[in-house]
Amino acid sequence: DQQVKQNSPSLSVQEGRISILNCDYTNSMFDYFLWYKKYPAEGPTFLISISSIKDKNEDGRFTVFLNKSAKHLSLHIVPSQPGDSAVYFCAASVGRGSTLGRLYFGRGTQLTVWP
Amino acid sequence: SQTIHQWPATLVQPVGSPLSLECTVEGTSNPNLYWYRQAAGRGLQLLFYSVGIGQISSEVPQNLSASRPQDRQFILSSKKLLLSDSGFYLCASLFRENYEQYFGPGTRLTVT
Do A46 and B102 count as a contact with CB atoms less than 8 A apart? Predict the structure, then answer.
């Protein structure tokens, strides 16, 4: 059962515009959410995270929004750049400080930013 | 800083052959370690995790196994590979200072 869902397998955006990647989750116990970026043949790299006590976290061009009532989060990239083209994974965990650190991943969204 | 090494980077193995993938971590002690697999068109599937030497938990029953002989070494093995074992295998470590999970470069396994 997929507890973290990324329903859009791909997204195409023009350079300079906003990219919005969406993620939904089903487990109400999740309280920490992360976004990873992955290039082909490489391991995912951590991008940005948000705790359930917040509804927004911003880091440069990247902003993550969390809507707990809708069990939905989104990643905004503004402005989008061609180097942002990659697969973006949404992940969630129960208890950020847990010794387990078990993450549940979505299937990813391929973002393509064209000039 | 923490660094995760994986080898080999790519591997082509025939069906029924054994497998051994190695992961080592630098820059931290007593990390939680994880093995993930990304199959074609699929997300990241957690296979095994370990919270300490000799402690292995399996997430998905399969013909793979994992071992942790040393604090910063995590090994993924199989006695007999199946075609369905093909995929991109990723080792990850939990960075306790900020509780973020960092990934190694991965191993591309093709079973023929």
Answer: yes
The verdict on a CB contact (< 8 Å) between A44 and B49 is no
A18 Cβ partners below 8 Å, 6+ apart? Answer: A76, A77, A78, A79, A80
Mean of the per-residue pLDDT values of chain A = 92
Which CA distances in Å does B52 have to B32, B90, B93, B103?
Answer: 7, 18, 12, 18
Taking phi over 0 as left and psi of -120 to 50 as alpha, with beta for the rest, B49 belongs to: beta
Ranges A29-38, A58-67, A85-94, B32-41, most confident = A58-67
Nearest chain B CA: its distance from A108 CA (Å): 6
Low-confidence ranges of chain B (pLDDT < 70): 61, 96-99
Is B1 in the A-facing interface, judged by CB distances under 8 Å? no
Which A positions 41-100 lie with beta carbon below 8 A of chain B? 41-46, 49, 89, 91, 96-97, 99-100
DSSP code, position B98: T
Residues B85/B109, Cβ–Cβ less than 8 Å: yes
Q: Residue B85 — φ and ψ, nearest 5°?
A: -80, -5
Geometric angle at alpha carbon A48, from A44 and A52, rounded to 5°: 120
Is the pLDDT at A98 greater than 70, yes or no? no
